[in-house]
Amino acid sequence: MPPDQVSERWVRKAFSALLLLCLLLQPNPAPALFRSNEVANANLTPFPKWTGMLERYFAERQRAGAECLGGGGPRCPTPDWQKLVVELSRRERDQQLATVNAHMNRFRYILDPVNWG
Question: Which residue, 110, 117, 107, 113, is CA-closest to 60?
Answer without folding.
Answer: 117
